[in-house]
UniProtKB/TrEMBL annotation:
Record-linked PROSITE patterns: 2FE2S_FER_2, FAD_FR
CDD domains from the UniProt entry: fer2, FNR_iron_sulfur_binding_2
UniProt lineage: Bacteria, Pseudomonadati, Pseudomonadota, Gammaproteobacteria, Moraxellales
This protein's name: FAD-binding FR-type domain-containing protein
Transmembrane segments: none
2Fe-2S ferredoxin-type domain sequence ranges: 273-355
Matching SUPFAM superfamilies: 2Fe-2S ferredoxin-like, Ferredoxin reductase-like, C-terminal NADP-linked domain, Riboflavin synthase domain-like
Domain FAD-binding FR-type: start-end pairs: 37-137
Length: 355
């Protein structure tokens, strides 16, 4: 008996010493690319075009994938030409084993272009831990969803989550969705179907290239009970900033911006600022008024980051000294010892940060 136990434990430690998790994953994935002892993997099992330059990928997930609640974002890592690239996307629940990733090709976007144009069924993606504040449990009787362009993806996920949890039977949900043209409207058929099946759901699609119908006060005036409405907005930074000021009297307001389109092109911001990186013991000149993260990357420094949208907190570091400006809403911050998200802040004076 003792001899058998001894042999087993000897075998386990031998297996452990000759087979680390990397090797084990390598051999498991020879049998099935979704098998892994510790990696959250998803396989593309279906790909369909859902609007101009926009595809939906149905992903089969392995048991390690943590599914976020509807409206949250997942870090998604793809391998392109032997390199790993991580981006953040909102995933829609399909069933217990599948999620849907909807991606719109972004101008000069390496990952979005690859996913839209080159990805194929059978390709494997890695999914990180979900995060984000937009979630489907809403405490008010009304929910207003404002989406511009790719900002529709977390809203689709929320709508599908509300359908599946039957909350659409009781909560009144209105979606306002801005796209350039009719061809850019993703999931128009799906939205029509939901509005036909749920009396509490309504939606409007605005085509900005046909008429100037950008988000404005008239959209606020349409609402009957702003004080009893939760408002979620997702779109480019200018859109998110407008939503913040127009809907400031809502019962709850949550905005997410996925690009820095408005404030980072401020022509009044000129000149350079010195940024001292205490951990690396370096001082670097970066352009005033541009994202600190992007500016450091241009200088060959690779700070830790995830979403690049100010949501995941992965880029946050301590600011010991200096003034910064939030590129999403223009807010200035002169306080030291503030946790600074370098992806969405620019330097306004010489800075000392803990990087
Ligand atoms: S990279 Fe996600 S908050 Fe900055």
């Amino acid at each position: 008996m003792h001899a058998i136990e001894k042999r087993n434990s000897l075998f386990n430690s031998l297996a452990h010493s000759v087979m680390n998790s990397h090797d084990a994953n390598f051999w498991l994935q020879k049998i099935n690319p979704l098998w892994s002892i510790n990696q959250s993997l998803a396989k593309i099992v279906k790909k369909q075009i859902v609007a101009k330059d926009t595809v939906s990928l149905i992903l089969q997930c392995n048991r390690h994938v943590t599914r976020g609640v509807a409206g949250q974002h997942h870090p998604v890592t793809v391998d392109i030409a032997g390199r790993h690239y991580e981006r953040t996307y909102s995933l829609m629940p399909v069933d217990a084993d599948h999620l849907c990733l909807t991606v719109k090709k972004v101008d000069q976007g390496l990952v979005s272009s690859w996913l839209v144009e080159q990805s194929q069924t059978g390709d494997i993606l890695r999914l990180g831990q979900p995060y984000g504040e937009m979630q489907q449990s809403v405490a008010t009787p009304h929910l207003l969803l404002l989406a511009a362009g790719s900002g529709i993806t977390p809203m689709l996920s929320l709508i599908e989550g509300l359908c599946q949890s039957k909350q659409l039977n009781t909560t009144s949900v209105k979606l306002m969705y801005w796209v350039k043209t009719q061809a850019d409207a993703a999931y128009a058929e799906y939205l029509k179907e939901v509005s036909e099946n749920f009396a509490h759901f309504s939606y409007q699609i605005f085509y900005t290239q046909q008429q100037d119908q950008r988000l404005n006060q008239s959209h606020v005036d349409q609402l009957l009970a702003l004080g009893q409405t939760t408002v979620y907005a997702c779109g480019p930074s200018g859109f998110a900033a407008s939503a913040e000021s127009l809907f400031k009297d809502a019962a709850a307001l949550q905005t997410e911006a996925f690009s820095l389109s408005l404030f980072d092109t401020d022509a009044t911001e000129t000149g350079f600022i010195n940024v001292t990186l205490t951990q690396s013991n370096k001082t670097i000149a970066i352009p005033k008024g541009q994202s600190i993260l992007s500016s450091l990357e241009h200088q060959g420094i690779k700070p830790n980051h995830g979403c690049r949208m100010g949501i995941c907190n992965k880029c946050a570091c301590n600011k010991a000294q200096g003034a910064t400006k939030n590129l999403l809403n223009g807010a200035a911050n002169n306080e030291p010892t503030q946790l600074l998200k370098i992806c969405v802040n620019s330097a306004q004076s010489d800075l000392v940060i803990d990087l």
